[in-house]
Amino acid sequence: MIACVVLLWYDHTIVKRRIEQIFFQLMEVDVMERITKNQVKHVAHLARLNFNEEEIEKFAYELDEIIGFAEQLNEIETSNIEPTSHVLDVRNVLREDEKKESLSSEDAMKNAPDQKDGQFKVPSVLD
Amino acid sequence: MELFDYKLRDLHELLHKEEVSVTNLVEASYKRIEEVDEKIGAFLRLNKEAALEQAKELDDQLKKGEMDPADTLFGLPVGIKDNIITKGLKTTCASQLLDNFDPVYNATVVEKLAAAKAVTIGKLNMDEFAMGSSNENSSYKQVRNPWDLNRVPGGSSGGSAATVAAGEVPFSLGSDTGGSIRQPAAFCGVVGLKPTYGRVSRYGLVAFASSLDQIGPLTRSVEDNAYVMQHIAGHDERDSTSANVDVPDYLAALDGDVKGMKIGVPEEYLGHGIDEGVKQKVNEALKKLEELGAIVQKVSLPHSKYALATYYILASSEASANLSRFDGIRYGVRKEQDHLLETYKHTRSEGFGNEVKRRIMLGTFALSSGYYDAYYKKAQKVRTLIKQDFEDLFLNYDVIIGPTTPTTAFKFGENLDDPLTMYANDILTIPMNLAGVPAISVPCGLADGLPVGLQIIGKHFDEESVYRVAHAFEQATDHHKLKPEL
User: Fold this and answer.
1) Residue B293 to residue B231: CA distance in whole angstroms
2) Which of A3, A62, A96, B180 has the least CB density, counted as fewest CB within 10 Å?
3) pTM for the model
4) B411 assigned to active site
C-alpha cells in the first residue's frame, strides 16, 4: 500500500524532479540542466506570461524533456542543407499600392475591450 | 435510411426535385443535435435562428425555380470549426481569451460556402487554438467519440469529425496543422482531407502555425469530400501564401480506375510503435488495392523519425509569434491591471490554457537570442530533408500509403500528463504538413470495434490521385457504410 502511494507520487513530474535532484545532490553529481528555472522566468517574461513557482518548476522539467527530445536533430549533418523558407516554389507577390475599401472604424473597434473617441484605450504605459 | 446517409450529390438532387426542402434538412440537423449532442459535445454554438430563416428564403427560391445548378451546396447543412471566423457568429477557438469575440468579416472559405448557398448550422468544438490531439484541450467541454463515449474523438478538429460521424451534419470544415483533420477523421471513422499547402485560402483561419495550417473538408464519403473541395479550393489574393494553380474537376477523378498506379508503402509507417490491429487493416487495404490493379511496393522515408521533433520546434515557434496578438487590447477578454505590461501578462496567463502556454513557452525559447540557430534554423534544415524524401519518392510513385494513426482512439486522460506521448500520436501525419503535400484519411475497417484510418498521400496539387485511390478503395469495400450506434 505504502509502496503504491510512493509510486503514484513518483509519477508526478515535479516530485520526480525533486527526488532526482536530491539523489544527484547526494551522489554529488552535476545535473546537466538544459533549462533552468531562471531561464523559464526569462522566457515567460518575453512571452508576456505569469507563472507561480510551482508552474515554473513544472515548465523547467517539461521544456527540458521536449528540448532534450529535439536534440536528436543534432544526429543529422545539415551544414550543406538550405533551411526551408517555403514548401512551394513561390515568389513574392507585388501589387500596385491602390486605395481600396477596408474595415470601417466602427467595425474595427467592435471588439475593443475599452475605447474612447474611436481609439483603443489602454492602462498607463509608464508610472 | 437517415437523410444524412445520402450523398451530398443525392441530397442536391432531392432538393432539385423538391422531394425534400431546405427546411427539412436544416431541421433534421438541429433535431439530431438535440438528440445526441449532449453526449457528443461537438457544437460550441448553434446558428439556429439565422439558419432556419435562410432555409425559408432558399425554399422560396426553390419553389420559384430559381435554384442555380452551379450552387451544388444549395441548402446543405454544414458545421464549421471554431477557428474559422464567421461574421456575426462568435468565434472563440475554444479559448477563454476569445470568449466574447464577434468577427466583423468572414473567412474566404465561409464566403465560398455562402456563395454556394450552404447553410451554417453552428461552430464546432476543438482543442484550444487547434493545439492538441484529443480535444481534451477545449476550454469549454469535452467532445466524445461517437463509437465509444469513453474515448477521445482525436484532435484538434475533434468536433468536426465527431459531428459528421454522429450524423448531425453531412459535412464540416476543419483545419490541419500536424494531423488535426486526418487523425480525428481516422478515430471517428470519417473521410478527412488535408489539401496541398496553398490550395485552400487561409484568410480568416485563426493562425496557429502559418507555414503548416490548411483548411479541409470532413465527410462521410470520398465523393462528398471532393464535392465540397471543389467549392473551397482556389487562389485568393487576400492570402499571400495561396497558390495560383488551376483547380481541376475533382469529381472527374473518381472513376474507380487505379490499374497500373504505383503505390509506395514506407516501411517506417508500418514498423515499431504501430498497433497490430492497425497494421492488419492497412495491410488488408493494400491487398485490396493490388486486387484492383495497383502496383504496391515497399519504400523508405529515411528522415521521417525526425519529423516529430522538427514539427514541435517549428509549429511552436510560429505559434508563439502568431499568438502574440492576443493581448487584450483590440479584442478578447482583457484582465485589466494598473499597468499595460501587467495587463498583457494577466490577460494571457488567465486566458490561455496549459497546452497553449506550454507551446508558446517552447516556441519563445526556441526563437530567443542564442538559441535560434540551434533549434529553429536546425529544424528548418531538417524540414528540407523531410520534404526531399517525399520529392524523391514521387519521382517514381503516384501516391504513398500508410496508416493515419499508430493506434485507434484512446481513452480520456490516457496521454494527458505526458506531452511527449501525446505528441507521438501525430507521428504519421506531421511529415505531410512539413512537406506541404496533400493527404486524406479514409476508413479501412474496425480494430476491436474502433475505426482505423488509411492515409493516402499525393504530390503537391495532386489531390486528384489521392481522391482517385481513396474512392476506388472505398467503393471496393463496405467500411464507409459502418456507422456508430448512438
Assistant:
1) 31
2) A96
3) 0.93
4) no
